[in-house]
Design brief:
Layout: E1 15-16, E2 23-24, H1 27-34, E3 46-47, E4 56-57, H2 60-70, E5 81-82, E6 93-94, H3 97-108
């Protein structure tokens, strides 16, 4: 059940990045985003484990998506979302849930 704010509660103000003017729900998201504009790329906490791949990400979920889509044969395969509409006919698999949902809507009409 969703929590409803009381009418006396102030709505959250969105915060804006000074560099690119993109807005965020709060300071946490803005601080995480501001690393993108930093010259110090060592703040990217998640690096691809493939030695010759330069990919780095701020969020582990983005690294997992990268590994599943760019290095599908890597033994560190994280998670695969499989199409469940008609498993006998459609054996499509995806590295993230939103891709699976798009597939099911576009291909299967769901």
């Amino acid at each position: 059940m969703a929590v409803k704010r009381s009418s006396s509660a102030k709505p959250r103000r969105r915060v804006q990045c000074n560099e690119c003017k993109k807005t965020f729900r709060g300071p946490f998201e803005l601080n995480r985003h501001s690393i993108l504009h930093s010259k110090d790329k060592s703040k990217y906490a998640h690096k691809c484990p493939v030695s010759d791949c330069p990919y780095t990400a701020l969020q582990k979920s983005n690294l997992n998506t990268h590994i599943n889509s760019v290095h599908p044969n890597l033994s560190l395969k994280i998670r695969t979302e499989k199409c469940t509409v008609d498993p006998d006919v459609c054996n499509a698999d995806f590295c993230d849930a939103p891709s699976l949902i798009r597939h099911e809507k576009k291909v299967h009409g769901y």
